[in-house]
Amino acid sequence: MTKSPLIVALDFEDVNAAKTLINQLNPKYCRLKIGKGLFTQEGPYIIDYIQQRDFEVFLDLKFHDIPTTVAHAIKSAAKLGVWMVNVHASGGEKMLSAAKNALEQCLNPPKLIAVTILTSLAEADVHAVGFQGNIPDLIRNMAKMAQKCGLDGVVCSAQEAALIKADCGADFISVCPGIRPLNLQDADARDCVPAGDDQMRIMTPDQAIKNGANYLVIGRPITQANDPSTALDDIYMQLALN
Ligand code: C5P
User: What are the angstrom distances between the C-alpha of 234 and each of 6, 26, 227?
Assistant: First the structure.
């Protein structure tokens, strides 16, 4: 099991491109995240492929449904031996508790994490959906609810990680996407992230860790880099040096 806080998001349409990247990366330096795209296309096979290469897997399917259905999905995820799995906090307390209870009989349960407000949403987007209040308050509320239901932590932007630590304590995990390394200020590196990049609430890896993030989810800055393995090493080194 690696001590690295880095989780590389394998957001590929083409499984062969994903496999090429997997075989370039070192499980000492990162875990891997499988999202809806690859899982819908490849199913559990891709998880097995990754686990056979000694990576731990974050299965990022963000379950959000009635409690019974989510409990079933979480049980099935646990059977795949994944390290982390998640649900949407906005599914409500009953759904979160059902997800937690589904892991009761599991010998080696995955970490169960609640997605708060997606890092692609700004305040205006959140209000357009009908949520009231500011994003940090909404996230704090969701985090407290997830903790009350026995979950291990939340997905949030690194901007909110310190608030969550203050409210929920050091052991409650913050998993933070929306990470953009400083070198994205270089013209070459900026090409790694498409112009229409959809993340709104971002931080550098270093800032994110200082702000209390436990795990950093990084996709395009690594997957779209000319040399993904070097991009990962650079981020790892930046963190190790600070
Ligand atoms: O390419 P990028 O670094 O923006 O990828 C971020 C990854 O984190 C994507 O796989 C996305 O689905 C995931 N994610 C996110 N925001 C959340 C939860 C997950 O960006 N709130």
Answer: 12, 13, 11
